[in-house]
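Dear colleague,

Following up on Tuesday's group meeting, I ran the structure prediction for the two-component complex that the binding team flagged. I've pasted the input sequences exactly as they went in, so you can double-check that nothing got truncated or mislabelled along the way. The C-alpha cells for the whole assembly follow below. Feel free to forward this to whoever is handling the docking comparison.

Inputs:
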Amino acid sequence: MARTPWAALIALAALLPACRGLITGPPRASPAPAAAGPGTVPAGTAGSPAAATFDPKDPDAPAPPLFACDASAAPPELPLPRLSRVQLGNTLRFAIRLAVPAEADAIWAAVSPRFDRYPVDVRAPAPGDLKGGYSRFDQSIQQSQIAAVYDTAGAIAQQLTSTPARLAAMMGACATDASAANDRACLEAFVSRWASRVTRQALSADDVAYYADIAGATPVAADAVADVVATVLNSAETLYRVEHGTDDGAPSSPLAAFELAARLSYNLWQEPPDDALWAAAQDGSLLSDAGYEAQLARLLASPKLRQSIDEWVTEWLRLDELPPLDTLNADPAFRAFAGADLPPASARDAMIADVLGSAWAAVASGGTPSSFLGDRHSYATDPYLAGLYGVAPWDGAAAPPTFASARRAGLLTRAAFLATGTGGTRPIHKGYLVRNAVLCQQVGSPPADANTKTPVASGQETTRQAVTERTSGGVCGACHTTIINPPGFITESFDALGRERAQEDLYDAEGNLLASLPIDTSAAPAVEPGDARVMSTAAELTHAIDTSGLFHSCLGRHYFRFAESRVEDPALDGCLLSKLEAAARSNAALSEVLGVVARDATFKAKRFE
Amino acid sequence: MRDHPHLRVVDRRLFLRGAGGALLALPLLPSLFRSRRALAQAAAASKGFVHFRTPHGAISTANMWPGDAALTDKLTYTHEVRRGALAATSDGAGNSVISPVLTASASALTPGLVAKMNILRGLDIPIAMAHNFGAPLGYYDVDHQRPADPRATVDQVLAYSPAFYPSLGAVKKRSVAIGAPGASSGSYGYLTPGVRASGVSSSANAATESAQGLFDSLLAGAAPAGPTAEPRTPVVDRVLDSYKRLRNGTKRLSTADKLRLDEHIAAVAELQRSLEANLASGCMVPPRPSPDNLSLRPMDGVPEKNVQFFQMMNQIVAVAMSCGATRVVTFSIDENNQALTFTPRPAQGEDWHNNVAHTAAKAAAGQDLIRQFNQVFFSRVYLDLVGRLDAMSDGMGGTALDHSLVAWGQECGQVTHWAFSMPVVMAGSAGGALKTGSYCDYRNLAYRWGGDSGTGNESDLIWTGLVYNQWLTTIMLALGVPQAEWAETTHPGYGARVALPPDFFAYSPGTPKTSDVYTDAMWQKTGEILPFLSP
C-alpha cells in the first residue's frame, strides 16, 4: 500500500530544482556576473549550490560580495510606472488639499469610500523567490482601477465645486464674482496652478487651453469646473509617472526637473512633490548637484519618509504573514498556554508596529543596518506587548526602553518573528524567514506532495523534536536538517507568544498540562556556506548574520526591489546593486543606504530603448 | 450583430427578480417573438457563466462521490469511461443526499434541480501543481507562481468574446471577479483585454468581495437619468481624448510607454461603453445591501456569517445576471485570505491548510472538517446561487439557470497539492448545449497512482483520467465561443498542454510512461465536449 507514495517521492526527488542539501546562494563576485534575462532566477540567490565561503580561522570575516558592476550594462527601465495604490491615494488627497485646504479632510472623508474600491496592489512572487515580491511590482492596468479612479475623481470634482465658497477657495474670487469677463482667465490660472502640481509637469499654454476648453462656454460654472477637475485627476500624468526626458535624441535622456522631482517624492515619500521640492524644480536648482543633494537630504530626514519605510519593511520581512493572535482565545489548550498573557485583538498590530518602530528609529536616528538587526529596544506602546518584553510601554517620544532580558537579541527575537497565533512555535517558519528574508538565501519550494502539516509537540516530545522527526527523513531532510530548521531552533527559547521560556509546556486539548520538557536551542545555522559552528542563542545567531554581511547585502537587494518596483537583474543592475551592498556593508547610516538609489545616475535619467 | 428591439423587450420584461428572493415571473408573451430563430438568438445571447473556486480540494472519495454502483453506463472513449443518472436520496431528516458533501435541504436540492446538474470525476491537470488560484479556470499556476506557458482564463476569453457578448447594450461589466482584495482572484486576462496577441497579464484581475461594491458597479442607477437641459460632454470622453492626445502627441515616449498607454486607453474605452449601458427598465433591482457584507467580519469560525457573507453577494449576482448587467462571474474562495471555513474551526492563517487539509487524506478529524466546509459551501452558497437563478423565469418556459453554466471547481483533487481528479460540479445546460443529470467518471481504471507523502488511505485511491483542458473546452463550446478565439497549436482543446515528467508514473502499477497515461490520442480529443455531455 505504501509503495506508490514512496515511489512518488522518489520520482519527485529527482525533480527538485533547487534544494539539494546545500544553500543555493551567492557565488563569489566576478567582474561580470553571468547574464540573466528578465524572469530568470536572480543570480546570487538560487540556481546552483553555493561554494563554501566561510573561513573558520576568521569567523567574523564577511562573505564575499554578491554583486559586481558591469559598467557597460544598460539597466532595464520600468515603462510608464503606474502609481501604487498608496501613492495614488496620497496624490488624490494632495489634489484636494491643494484646492481647498481648509476642508480637505472632510472632502476626503466623503470620497474615500469610493477610493476604497480601487484594487489593492497584489504582491506577485519574484522569479525564483516565492515570497520576495513587493506590491509595487503590481504594474497591471485593470478595468476595475480605471472604474474606481473615475468614480473617485468624479466625486472629488463634485465636492470641490459643490459650493461657491469652495469654488472661491480653489480658484479665487474671480470664480464667483459678478463679472463674466474674467472667467476664462480665472479658470486658466487655476489650471496652470493646480493641474500642474497634480500632474507634476510644467503645463504649456496649449496644455492649459486644452484643459480649460473642457469647461466650454461657462468657464467657472460648477459643473464645468468639475469636468475639468475630473479630467485632470483621470489623466495619464496623474495616474502614472509620465516622463519625456530632455534629450529626444539620446537612448537615455536626463529627466526634466519636474520629472526628477516626482521620482524623488514618490520614491521616498509616496506622494507628489511638496512646495519646496516643486520650487527647486521650478527654479532649476534641483538639476544642480548641490540643489539635488539639498533636496535629497531634506527628504531623507523628513518624517514623511516613514510611510515608505513602513511599506518596505513590512513587505521585506513579511510582517503581514503574522496571523491574528486572539483567534484561539476560547480554546482551552491555548488559554492554558497563554495564561495571564491571553492576547488582545490588538496584539498582532502591536507586534508589527514594534518592528516598524525599530526600523524607523534606525532610519531617523542615524542607525545602520547592523543596529537595526541588533536593536534591543522595545517600541511597544501598548501594555500587552511591553509586558511580554518585560518593559514599560514606550511613550513614543522619550528614548525607548531596552529589553529586560539579554537573551532577546534584536530583530530575530521581536515578537513578530516568534508569535504564531497558536500555542506552538514554528521553527520551520522561523528558519525559512531567517534564511530567505533576512539572508536572501533560496531553498527552493518543497515537493508538491510534501506533507506540510505543521509538526505539533505532544506530551512526549517538544516542538523541535516533532519537527526533527517529521523533516529529517527522505527528501525533506536534505533541506530541513541543515538549512531550514537550524536558525529556527536557535530561537526556541521563546514561545509562540514571543515570551522567553526555559522549558516547553505541553497541554492536552482540555488545557491540562501534560509535560514540561527541556528546550534545546543548539544548532548549526550555517549562515554562510561552510560555517559549521554550533550556536545556541539568538545573540550568537545575530552576530553571525551581522558579521557575514549577508544581511546587509540582502537589505540592499530588497531596497532595490522596493525602490525600483521590479526584480533585480544582477547582470544589468549590478552597478546599483553593488553600490547598495557596499553602502550597507560599510554600515553607513540607513538613510544613506536608501539615498544610494536616488544618487545613482540611472535614477536621474530615463531609458527610451 | 444587429439589435433586435423586440428581443430587448423580452429581456426587460421577463428576467425579473424582486428583492429578498421574491420571485416575479411575468407570463410568457409569445407575440413578442417573431421567429424561432429570434428565440434561439435571445437564448444564446443570455448565456451566463459563474464559477466558484474553493481551496485545497482534499475531499475524500467517500465524501465527494456517489458509490460506484451509480455508474451504470460505460463508453469506450480514449479509455473506458462511465456514467450514471445523477440522483439524490432522502436521509430521512429533510435532506437530499448525492454524497456526504453534496447534501442539502430537500427544498434546495430538489429532483428537478438534480436533473439540471452534472458531477464530473476524473479530470486531471497533469503537472505537480500544489497551490493555485487560477488553475480551475485555465491558468495553470504552480504553487502560486507564474506559469511557464500562461493562458488567459476562460472567464476572460468569454468576457471579451464577440460570440458570447454579441451585444453589450445592458452590460455594465463584462466580468466580475469576487474574492479577497490583495489576493489573486484566479482570473487572468490579456494585457490588452480581449487581444490575445498582447499576451497574458501577469496580474490577476482585481477582485472585490463587497456586496455594496457589487451593487454599485452592476445595479446602481438602474433608472436612466432623464435628459438635462444642456447636456455636457461626458467626462469619460474627455478622459479618453486626453490619453489619445498624449499617446499621439509629439512629446517623447518609449515604445513600451505607448503600449501601456494603449492598454489604458482600451480600458477607458470600455469604461465609456459601460457608462452608457443601461439596465433594462423592467429589471427589478433590490435595495442596496446595507450594511455591507464586509460588516459581518470578524467571522472566522462562525459558519452562519460565512454563509451570509456570500449569500448577500449571490443576490446581487443573480439579479445582475438576469438583468444582463454581467454574464460572467467568478468567485475565488480562500479560507486564509478571507478568514472563513464554513465551520466553527477558524482558518487561523495557514493553520487550516497545514493542520486540516493536509491531514484530511487520512485523519478522520481533518477530513470531517473538509467535509463540513464543502458541504456547507455546496448547500448554502453554491446551491443558493443556483437556486436563485433557477427561480427566475426566462419567459420561455425555462429559467435563467437553464441558460447558464454555474460550476464549482476546486484547487486540488482529493489529496491536497495534487491535481488528479479535480472535482467539477455544474448546474445549468448553457441553453441546452449540455446534457445534464449525470454523474460522469472519466478515470482510467487501468492507471492508479498514489499521492500525499503522508501515505494516507486516500492517496491510494487516485486514478488518472482525462485532461482537465477538455472541461475548459466544454465550457467554451457550451457557451458558444468558437475555437478560433482560443485555438492552440499543440492540441485542439483549451489551454496549455502541460505534462508531468516522462517517468512520473514509473513506480505505479504497470510502470506506465506519462505518455501512456495522457496519450496523444487523449490530447487530440480535447477539442470535444466531454463524453456524456453532448445533448
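The mean pLDDT of chain B is 87.

Cheers,
M.
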